[in-house]
Specification:
The protein is an alpha/beta fold. The strands form 3 sheets. A 6-stranded mixed β-sheet has the order 10-9-8-13-11-12, with helices on one face. The chain is built from 11 helices and 13 strands. The two termini are about 25 Å apart. It is globular and about 55 Å long. This is DegV domain-containing protein.
C-alpha cells in the first residue's frame, strides 16, 4: 500500500522538513480586514507579526477551505492508496473533523485523520514519525499504533507574554486582563480534554518558565531518552538561550526550536513561549 503523510500548517514544519520526509501540507488561514492569507503559503510568521502591529484589531482564523482539501486528496489519490493526516486538536479547530468528513468525498484513497489533541510541533512530531515509518515500509495500523504510544507522554505548556490577546480573543474578560497585567500574572496554559485551559497562574515570566522546567525535570528524572521543543512567538533569541539551558541541564533530552505561526499566534500573541516534550 502506498501511504502519504499530510498535516496542516499549524504543525509549523519547515519546508525543508516537509520536502525531506515527503510530508504534504494543507494550510489554515488568517483573516485580516483587508485580505485572507494562507499561513505558510501567503504569509510567513515574521510577516504576520509585523502586520499585526499595523492593525488595530486581531485577525480571525479559519480552517482549510473544503474545496482545497478535496482537491489535495484527489491529487494524492493519483499516487497513493491511503493518507495519514495529522491535525491540530479537534477541541480548538474543526480541521480534524473536516478531514474525517473528506474521507467520504474522495474516491480512490482512504483517509486516516489523526487528532494530535495538541498543536504546533507536537503534531509535527507525529507527522515526522509517520513519514519515517512509511519509508521503512510500515502499515497504516503500525503507524497509528506508534502515534498513540507517543501520545501517552506528549505534553505541552505555554506562557503568554501579554494577556490582552487572550482578552481580545474572548478567552479572558476585561477585568481579569487588567488585574492580570497589573500583577504581572503569566498564566501557564496546557491542553486538557483537547482544549487550551489555564494550568497555573504565576506572577512573572521567569518563574513561569522555571515552573515548566521543573515539570520537564519530573519527566526526565528516569534518564529515558526524550525529545523536547521550545516554541516562541517571534522571540528566537530568547528561545535559543532557553534551549542551551535545557540541553545542559537535561542531557537525555534532545531540545529543538520551533515557533508559533500566524494561526496559533493570533490567540497566544507575540512573545509567547511554549515547551513540549515526549519520551522517545
Amino acid at each position: 500500500m502506498n501511504i502519504a503523510v499530510m498535516t496542516d500548517s499549524t504543525a509549523y514544519l519547515t519546508p525543508e522538513q516537509r520536502e525531506a520526509f515527503d510530508i504534504h501540507m494543507i494550510p489554515l488561514q488568517v483573516v485580516f480586514d483587508d485580505a485572507t492569507y494562507e499561513e505558510e503559503v501567503d504569509i510567513t510568521a515574521s510577516e504576520f507579526y509585523e502586520k499585526v502591529k499595523q492593525q488595530k484589531t486581531l485577525p480571525k482564523t479559519s480552517q482549510p477551505v473544503v474545496g482545497k482539501v478535496i482537491e489535495k486528496l484527489e491529487e494524492l489519490s493519483q499516487s497513493y492508496d491511503a493518507v495519514i493526516s495529522v491535525h491540530l486538536s479537534s477541541g480548538i479547530s474543526g480541521t480534524y473533523q473536516s478531514m474525517v468528513a473528506a474521507n467520504d468525498m474522495v474516491e480512490g484513497i482512504e483517509v486516516y485523520a489523526y487528532d494530535s489533541e495538541l498543536s504546533c510541533m507536537a503534531q509535527g512530531y507525529y507527522a515526522l514519525e509517520a513519514a519515517r515509518m512509511v519509508k521503512q515500509g510500515a502499515s497504516v495500523e503500525e503507524i497509528l499504533k506508534r502515534m498513540d504510544e507517543m501520545k501517552e507522554t506528549m505534553i505541552a505548556y505555554f506562557i503568554v507574554d501579554d494577556l490582552s490577546n487572550l482578552q481580545r480573543g474572548g478567552r479572558l474578560n476585561g477585568a481579569q486582563a487588567i488585574i492580570g497585567s497589573l500583577l504581572q500574572v503569566k498564566p501557564v496554559l496546557h491542553f486538557e480534554d483537547k482544549k487550551i485551559v489555564p494550568f497555573e497562574k504565576i506572577r512573572t515570566k521567569k518563574k513561569a518558565i522555571s515552573r515548566i522546567k521543573a515539570l520537564l525535570a519530573e519527566q526526565a528524572a528516569d534518564g529515558a531518552k526524550m525529545k523536547a521543543c521550545l516554541l516562541h512567538g517571534n522571540r528566537p533569541e530568547e528561545a535559543e538561550i532557553l534551549r542551551q539551558e535545557l540541553a545542559a541541564e537535561f542531557p537525555n533530552v534532545e531540545v529543538e526550536i520551533s515557533y508559533f505561526g500566524p494561526v496559533i499566534a493570533t490567540h497566544l500573541g507575540e512573545g509567547a513561549i511554549g515547551l513540549l516534550w515526549y519520551k522517545v
